[in-house]
Amino acid sequence: xxxxxxxxxxxxxxxxxxLGVHLSGEATVDQSRRDFxxxxxxxxxxxxxxxxxxxxIDQMNPDASTxxxxxxxxxxxxxxxxxxxxxxxxxxxxxxxxxxxxxxEEAQNTPLNELRDPQSDAQRVKKPEWLIVIGxxxxxxxxxxxxxxxxxGWFCPCHGSVYDTSGRIRQGPAPxxxxxxxxxxxxxxxxxxx
Amino acid sequence: MSGTSTYVxxxxxxxxxxxxxxxxxxxxxxxxxxxxxxxxNYLWTFGAILSFMLAAQIVTxxxxxxxxxxxxxxxxxxxxxxxxxxxYGWLLRYLHSNGASMFFFxxxxxxxxxxxxxxYKAPREVLWILGVIIYLLMMATAFMGYVLxxxxxxxxxxxxxxxxxxxxxxxxxxxxxWLWGGYAVGDPTLNRFFSLxxxxxxxxAGVVVLHVWALHVVGQNNPDGVEVKNVARDTVAFTPxxxxxxxxxxxxFLIVYAWFVFYIPNYLGDADNYIKANPxxxxxxxxxxxxxxxxxxxxxxxxxxxxGVIALFSAIALLAFLPWLDTSPVRSAKYRPVFRVFFWxxxxxxxxxxWLGSQEITDAYVLAARILAICYFAFFLVVLPxxxxxxxxxxxxxxxxxxxxxxxxxxxxxxxxxxAEKSAV
Lengths: 194, 425
Ligand code: HEM
Ligand code: FES
Prior knowledge:
- The complex is a heterodimer.
- By secondary structure, chain A is α+β, with helices and mostly antiparallel strands.
- Helices cover 27% and strands 22% of the residues of chain A.
- Chain A has a four-stranded antiparallel beta sheet.
- The radius of gyration of chain A is 32 Å and the shape is elongated.
- The two termini of chain A are 61 Å apart.
- By secondary structure, chain B is an all-alpha fold.
- Chain B has two domains: 1-33, no CATH class; 34-411, Up-down Bundle (Cytochrome Bc1 Complex, Chain C), CATH 1.20.810.10.
- Helices cover 63% and strands 1% of the residues of chain B.
- Chain B starts with 11 loop residues before the first helix and ends with a helix.
- The chains are: A alpha+beta, B mainly alpha.
- Bound molecules: protoporphyrin IX containing FE and FE2/S2 (inorganic) cluster.
- Protoporphyrin IX containing FE (HEM) is lined by residues 54, 57-58, 61-62, 64-65, 68, 79, 93, 96-97, 100, 103, 138, 141-142, 145-146, 148-149, 197-198, 201, 204, 269 of chain B.
């Protein structure tokens, strides 16, 4: 243990400086120096508290093993025209829809001003015959049913959202179009999602 | 938890202990000598029933947790294992799942009792708000418990409810991902829900202690809604009067509970929850447990995602503001003839919303749900504030004792004379 240091009579100036006070009779306090110390300590404590709490919160975010499962390859040869293939990607369904001529035309000929979340069909597909969307209703996450609803696209049984043949929201409570995942055609008959 | 204790330990050991930790005196003053209004009816027994149900859920839950496995591939089978293999497992699970329903039945009786008799009015605002907090924690606990058996309703209920948070602008999606621990409800979600489902009932127990403490500071309200003026005339001792009445109320309640457990254990559940969760197939119809249906109907009534979610949460949050929304100085509906009509209309609106929440959505039902949702909010935001200013109330009795004596036509001989009254003479 260090020997306790006392304000000694022989070095009054130094002691005054160290303690931030005047040791002479009137004992005034250096207020600005106190404020600085107070704020600096408080700020350091706040940073430390934040740094301590962050791991407790962030541990709930997707972990490394979940993030690792991030891409899937699909053979398109198995999907005849007019059919929808559902594959699982990141724990969610992805719809791979081989659209018919009529469905493509319906999707392309829809005026944008009729749409709640305006997007042209060309913005949503890479090849018109293949529509690839995440099969999760943008309302509260149910899986819409294919080839149902007024627009030949999808109908969500949970609260009645209706999507068209481009997966765009047309009716019901959902706010947005079915999401298009990141994907790339590896060849004419192979696509990689993610 | 009430003022000073009148408890005097008799034995030397009792004295020694009491002077070191006066817990027996605390219990004595809270649950034995505590003065309760002499006019309480059976609606006042739900507090004791609720305490019992919390204990029952904790006991059955901790035992279930000894056999349950919170892992997405195993959870469903482990619940079936409890049902088929574990000794009395079927009983424990049915007690726990029906216990949740009975718990909610009791809490609704308790809350509507509070509204009818104006129990939230000064000085009981904090007591009331603590109650609303308990109710919120109960809903969170029951929701997460319902996810644990990992059936189709568990999975899709969890999906719909956690997606409510995705309605929040900008950060909503990140919050949903954070809640899930993945890109959809899955194994990490099940694990954390189990952890929280285990924790929250103990937090409820903590808030219940505060609730009872607040109750014993301000005293109980009563069917006439007038404050106790003379302890000797207006009250009787908690034990034996309230204790025995509570025990009788609880016994009747337990008969109903047992009837559900032994004769119709799956009546309140959903058959879809006996199908293992399938993340690639949504059931044709998603319905929450009955106790959440009115709020679900409000959510579905609104054609906009964010507004629907806001309406759902404000429908619950409004309860906390009741003490200030109700402007009438008179507490009990007994003396508020117009309020009484609106109260029953409000009960009918809640039941109607509950029924609509369980139905498939058609245009007619959505319209009906919209009308009832407007009525629900109007009760809080229009009727209660205005009624306090416009309603002509009936004259209040000068005291609880006067109200009781008037009802028994002045025959004081018909009124039980408590020890407090005897000693006061
Ligand atoms: C506030 C008190 C509680 C409520 C309202 C409640 C509610 C529920 C509900 C509704 C279920 C689903 C039942 C089903 O359909 O199978 C459930 C399941 C479960 N709860 Fe609780 N619970 C409570 C306290 C507890 C406690 C303290 C534990 C202790 C760990 C616990 C452990 C479990 C377990 C392991 C399951 C899954 C087994 C099963 O599904 O039966 N619960 N709970
Ligand atoms: S989740 Fe699809 S409409 Fe609500």
